[in-house]
Amino acid sequence: MNREQGLQLVEQTRIIAIVRGVEEQHITGVAQALLDGGVRVMEITLNTPGATKMIAQLQEQFGEQMYVGAGTVLDIDDTKKAIEAGASYLVTPNIDEDVIRYAAEQGIPIFPGAMTPTEIVKAWKAGATAVKIFPGASLGIGYIKELQGPLNHIPMVAVGGVSEDNIAQFIQAGCHGVGIGGSLVNLKEISAGNYGWVKDKASRLVANARV
């Protein structure tokens, strides 16, 4: 899946599944459950054991159907490892302008994490594809609405605290998309092999994101 197709998927489904701490034996089942539930964008965080191997595996198995990226990218070394593994896009929890510029030079979409207007604009000017507003739960939907006044030209993805109950509010507040972790990629259910739980949760989130 090329860059344009992947970014279109983010625009269409609005949801990025954040996969953190999932064991390698479960990753295919999780990806299939997300896909079956309508979530076609997922990131594997690099602080997950075996992350780069899982990214490569998912690209091979699901690369035509899903947009698979790397999350928790902290520095240039992480960036290079993620790209080498085949990550289609990168997500960071912070602003590192060297990382943003490097990704942009390589033609890899990057969603760096930012909190303040100054950080958001700095990330955008450095070459961010969209800016991850983090931590979303602590900042709140009202904060994101206020950001839209002066900064509505910058695509924003809210991460943290997004649920099926409030996802529509985040979208209505102006978010380009949202990132959802543990409330969708539930490690307890996954460890039990209950991939149907993930599929059902994904389906409800996708339905509620249509506003």
From TrEMBL:
<dbReference type="Pfam" id="PF01081">
    <property type="entry name" value="Aldolase"/>
</dbReference>
<dbReference type="InterPro" id="IPR013785">
    <property type="entry name" value="Aldolase_TIM"/>
</dbReference>
<protein>
    <submittedName>
        <fullName>Bifunctional 4-hydroxy-2-oxoglutarate aldolase/2-dehydro-3-deoxy-phosphogluconate aldolase</fullName>
    </submittedName>
</protein>
<comment type="subunit">
    <text>Homotrimer.</text>
</comment>
<keyword id="KW-0119">Carbohydrate metabolism</keyword>
<comment type="pathway">
    <text>Carbohydrate acid metabolism.</text>
</comment>
<comment type="similarity">
    <text>Belongs to the KHG/KDPG aldolase family.</text>
</comment>
<keyword id="KW-0456">Lyase</keyword>
<dbReference type="InterPro" id="IPR000887">
    <property type="entry name" value="Aldlse_KDPG_KHG"/>
</dbReference>
